[in-house]
């Protein structure tokens, strides 16, 4: 049986554990610094197994040693934003947490694949890569799959069609400068711009970019976790089952898309080795420019954490 560790047992972490248990693909270890929190939630999830029908082990712990032998470690530890905050406002606190978490992953699960979730996502992913010095295929962030799922759900609502027929693509940093790509977004194979006028597409693009903030605005004291955990579980499944799914994720770029020394959302092929390939889409000069603006925003954050 594969093993997945989920660091942070808050909203995203605990929901991710529930979704992973329901996929029935790995034993799961939940870790948090709050005493009793991961233990209680793990027991609760385990006690649903006879009702839901999964048959994996779920344990909660405050001891990082328990993540030994994990195939994948999902990092959700850190604070979430409140109304009025940007994701970048979380950096000062979450960078320290990420460094502690990564030191423990390096110590106890040195062969694991790391999927970061903590915000600001691209900067945290870069920090995790630098901190662990793992190869770039083994450290990447969940972001674009969530953003694409949001884009797809808004398109399906607008068209009053099944969301299953929508295939959406969002590149760039997981922030206000993310780059939804209508050109690479289709409904039953039909390009979006053949189905909607520019004004409607532009409204859906704006709503996608602001989707995280829209939820923070409603929730007042926390951010989204149902869709984020669904994206995380889908990516973990692609890795453990070696499905080679192609999804957007924040990956370290070494010349791809003209970018160097940065983690940024691009389409990647996910398999048992993590990011097995970075897919380079042909972009128009306008799309390239938007990606460059997004990269510049991420780079500003990276400079803040670089010694
Ligand atoms: N990448 C994305 O698309 C995406 C989506 C949703 C949330 N997020 C981010 O994920 C993070 C978590 O969000 P949440 O809603 O679960 O927050 P939360 O406050 O509900 O949970 C965070 C948990 O992390 C724990 N924690 C803090 N330091 C820790 C450490 N050193 N080791 C282990 N656990 C530690 C806390 O005790 C808490 O239980 C936030 O930074 C949020 O912005 C990212
Ligand atoms: O919006 C946030 O702060 C959380 C997450 O990045 C999201 O997009 O839901």
Give descriptors for this structure.
alpha/beta, Rossmann fold, L-2-Hydroxyisocaproate Dehydrogenase, Chain A, domain 2, six-stranded parallel beta sheet, globular, binds nicotinamide-adenine-dinucleotide, binds (2S)-2-hydroxybutanedioic acid, Lactate/malate_DH_N, oxidoreductase, L-lactate dehydrogenase (NAD+) activity, Malate dehydrogenase, NAD
Question: Would you kindly provide a written description of the structure presented here, covering whatever features stand out?
Answer:
This protein is of the alpha/beta class and 307 residues long. It folds into 2 domains: 140 residues, NAD(P)-binding Rossmann-like Domain (Rossmann fold, 3-Layer(aba) Sandwich), CATH 3.40.50.720; 162 residues, L-2-Hydroxyisocaproate Dehydrogenase, Chain A, domain 2 (Alpha-Beta Complex). Helix content is 42%, strand content 21%. It contains 10 helices and 14 strands. The strands form 4 sheets. A 6-stranded parallel beta sheet has the order 3-2-1-4-5-6, with helices on both faces. It has a 3-stranded antiparallel beta sheet with strand order 7-10-11, covered by helices on one side. The protein is globular and about 50 Å long. The termini are far apart. The protein binds nicotinamide-adenine-dinucleotide and (2S)-2-hydroxybutanedioic acid (LMR). Its EC number is 1.1.1.37. Belongs to the LDH/MDH superfamily. It comes from Methanolobus mangrovi. Keywords: NAD, Oxidoreductase, Tricarboxylic acid cycle. It catalyses: (S)-malate + NAD(+) = oxaloacetate + NADH + H(+).
């Amino acid at each position: 049986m594969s093993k997945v560790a989920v660091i942070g047992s808050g909203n995203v972490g605990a929901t991710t554990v529930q979704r992973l248990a329901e996929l029935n693909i790995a034993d799961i270890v939940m870790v948090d610094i709050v005493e009793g929190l991961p233990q209680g939630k793990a027991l609760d999830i385990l006690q649903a197994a006879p009702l839901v029908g999964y048959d994996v082990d779920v344990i909660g712990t405050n001891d990082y040693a328990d993540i030994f032998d994990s195939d994948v470690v999902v990092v959700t530890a850190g604070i979430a934003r409140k109304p009025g905050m940007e994701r970048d406002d979380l950096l000062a606190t979450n960078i320290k947490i990420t460094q502690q978490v990564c030191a423990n992953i390096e110590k106890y699960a040195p062969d694991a694949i790391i999927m970061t979730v903590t915000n600001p996502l691209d900067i945290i992913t870069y920090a995790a890569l630098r901190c662990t010095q793992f190869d770039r295929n083994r450290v990447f962030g969940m972001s674009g799959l969530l953003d694409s799922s949001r884009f797809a759900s808004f398109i399906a609502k607008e068209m009053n069609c099944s969301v299953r027929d929508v295939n959406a693509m969002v590149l760039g940093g997981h922030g206000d400068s993310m780059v939804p790509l209508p050109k690479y977004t289709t409904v039953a194979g039909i390009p979006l711009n053949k189905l909607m006028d520019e004004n409607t597409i532009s409204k859906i693009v704006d709503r996608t970019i602001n989707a995280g903030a829209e939820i923070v605005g409603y929730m007042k004291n926390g951010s989204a976790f149902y869709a984020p955990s669904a994206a995380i579980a889908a990516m973990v499944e692609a890795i453990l089952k070696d499905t080679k799914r192609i999804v957007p994720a924040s990956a370290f770029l070494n010349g791809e898309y003209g970018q160097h020394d940065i983690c940024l959302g691009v389409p990647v092929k996910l398999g048992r080795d993590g990011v097995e390939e970075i897919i380079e889409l042909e972009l128009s000069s306008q799309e390239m420019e938007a990606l460059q603006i997004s990269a510049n925003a991420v780079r500003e954050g990276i400079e803040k954490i670089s010694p």
